[in-house]
Design brief:
Elements: H1 5-12, E1 17-24, E2 36-43, H2 46-59, E3 63-66, E4 72-74, E5 79-86, E6 91-94, E7 97-101, H3 106-115, E8 118-119, H4 131-136, E9 140-141, E10 144-145, E11 150-156, E12 161-165, H5 177-180, E13 185-192, E14 194-195, H6 198-215, E15 221-225, E16 230-231, H7 237-242, E17 252-253, H8 255-261, E18 268-269, E19 272-274, E20 281-284, H9 290-308, E21 317-319
Parallel strand pairs: 2-5, 3-5, 4-21
Antiparallel strand pairs: 1-2, 6-7, 7-13, 8-14, 9-10, 11-12, 11-13, 15-20, 16-17, 18-19, 19-20
The chain binds flavin-adenine dinucleotide (FAD).
């Protein structure tokens, strides 16, 4: 249902909301793709976020929550409804327990932990986006994921604020309970880190950042990896036998391996390209569209399906599609 004028009027009365109408979502996605949202709202604190959520839900309008837009494909037609973003980004610590609000940038949290001589997040340096989305998608890199250090997650379930301990978050590779409950909004997390020399952590982070920036230049309009990697033990035996041992890392087969076998590198469709050097990296050269992007994704999935009988699963999240 489109957003009614009366809904906008009610939202305008809530403090600490920044509201804009017919805002192009391409401004808020790293792909630089996405048509307009009826309303785009940034909420600077929990009470204003909850108040906005109640009004939007009561109005019957569609709702989507975003973070930094680094893992999103938004349709060219945009989103008929309200896009809500929680921007509160405080970070504090009590000894080795660090509390971060969901709107904080993950990189700010990584830098904070390193500065305070706390180990556990340094391998996540260079992963763009917010803390909230990192919990939602159990972000990680270089053999570690954020779930390893999460103690608790505070979230709003639509009627009350609740706290889940690590086990209740049901973390798996790029998965959490929050991905299966799209109406739950993460507000903050407590992370348990380990004391370590700050200079040692900084040097690990610097090494990782250097490699990452070569793979993902800062100006590249992309979402990192499009597809999730695959867990070797879960693949059909016939496929397992075709996978060379050298490509397996921590029990996972990079989806880039299968994509390479089907000739993905360097494919183009209008303004959307698959990187020549990485088959799981798709980017927008500037004028690409969501339609072109989705066509390439569908083409790659179908090639891998036909050749290996495998269904690749997107890591990226969609907004504004049926
Ligand atoms: C260059 C590049 C490199 C990348 N490298 C990595 C990598 O190494 N490892 C990795 O894991 N990821 C990587 N990514 C993907 C991306 O950085 C992560 O998925 C990141 O966690 C997304 O954060 P975001 O704030 O931009 O979320 P968005 O893209 O805005 O949203 C992603 C999802 O999170 C949900 N969400 C956001 N905030 C909340 C909240 N508060 N409560 C509930 N749900 C919420 C949204 O609804 C959406 O479904 C990379 C992306 C890029 C562009």
């Amino acid at each position: 249902m489109p957003v009614q004028h009366s809904t906008l009027q009610r939202l305008a009365q809530i403090p600490n909301l920044s509201i804009s109408e017919h805002t192009l979502l391409s401004r808020y996605t790293r792909f630089g793709i996405g048509g307009p949202a009826d309303l785009y709202i940034e909420a600077a604190d929990e009470p204003s976020f909850i108040a906005a959520l109640h009004i939007v839900r009561a109005s019957g309008a569609e709702l989507a929550v975003i973070g930094g837009g680094t893992n999103l494909i938004v349709s060219d037609a945009g989103f008929r409804g309200v896009v809500l973003r929680f921007t509160s980004g405080g970070i504090s610590n009590d000894g080795r327990i660090v509390t971060a609000q969901a709107g904080a940038e993950l990189q700010a949290l990584v830098d904070y932990a390193i500065r305070h001589g706390l180990r556990g997040l340094e391998t996540m340096t260079g992963i763009p986006g917010s803390v909230g989305a990192a919990i939602y998608g159990n972000a990680g890199a270089y053999g570690h994921s954020i779930n390893e250090v999460v103690r608790q997650v505070r979230f709003f379930d639509g009627s009350a604020i609740r706290t889940f301990e690590n086990a209740e978050c049901e973390f798996h590779y790029r998965e959490s309970v929050f991905k299966r409950h799209k109406a739950w909004m993460i507000f903050s997390t407590d992370l348990e880190l380990t004391p370590a020399p700050a200079d040692e952590l900084q040097s690990i982070a610097n090494g990782i950042l250097k490699v990452r920036l070569e793979k993902y230049p800062a100006s590249m309009k992309c979402a990192g990896s499009i597809f999730k990697n695959l867990i070797l033990a879960e693949l059909p035996e016939a496929v397992q036998r075709q996978v060379p041992q050298r490509v397996v890392r921590e029990g996972k087969v990079p989806s880039a391996y299968f994509l390479e076998q089907v000739g993905a590198k360097g494919i183009t469709n209008g303004g959307i390209h698959v990187a020549e050097y990485h088959a799981n990296l798709i980017y927008n050269t500037g004028q690409g569209t969501a339609r072109e992007l989705c066509e390439i994704i569908a083409d790659l999935k179908s090639r891998v399906q036909q050749r290996f009988g495998l269904t690749l699963e997107e890591e990226v999240q969609y907004i504004g599609f049926p």
